[in-house]
Amino acid sequence: MLTTARAEAEQTVDNARAEAEATLSNARAEAQSALEAAQQRVTSLDEHAGRRVTYLTDTHGEVVRRLNEISSVLGDLMRRENSSGPLVVAEPAVEEVEEVRMIIEEEPAEPAEPAEPTEPTEPAPPAADHVSEDTDVNLGTLAHK
Asked: Is the pTM of this model over 0.85?
């Protein structure tokens, strides 16, 4: 009986070892497969990123070249514009200067005395409700009209 139990125990241990080795082999194979797939994805992404970096670098170089060309042309145009002088030379007319001088030298005219109205058609507003001649409006006077 002891020998039979020992033989059974050894058989169980051998079966467990075989199953553990099979499980370990399967796990290693799956891990190796996953690692290879990940490496393929990384390689693909790296190639794609490398192409994009190259494209962006080339595009940036082209943009910088075009901007330098535009700057050069604009600089030449500005130098030519400055060296050519103004398009129209504006000198004040002699007549205009004399007219301004005449207006300034004239003495202010005496205000004309208003004619006295014979009969007012509307009642005269009180003196405090005076309406100025420019854009100010006295709302009190408007309400009376």
From this structure: no
List of residues 6+ apart from 125 with CB closer than 8 A: 131, 141, 144
* 138 burial level (CB within 10 Å; 0-12, 13-18, 19+): middle
Structure tokens at 15: 């079966």
How far apart CA 76 and CA 42 sit, in angstroms, is 50
Determine the Cα–Cα distance for residues 79 and 33; give it in Å rounded to an integer: 68
Q: How many CB atoms lie within 10 A of CB 71?
A: 10
Q: At 133, is the secondary structure helix, strand, or coil?
A: coil
96-131 pLDDT, tens digit each: 555 555 555 555 556 555 555 555 555 555 555 554
Stated length of the chain: 145
What is the distance between the alpha carbons of residues 13 and 19, in angstroms, rounded to a whole number? 10
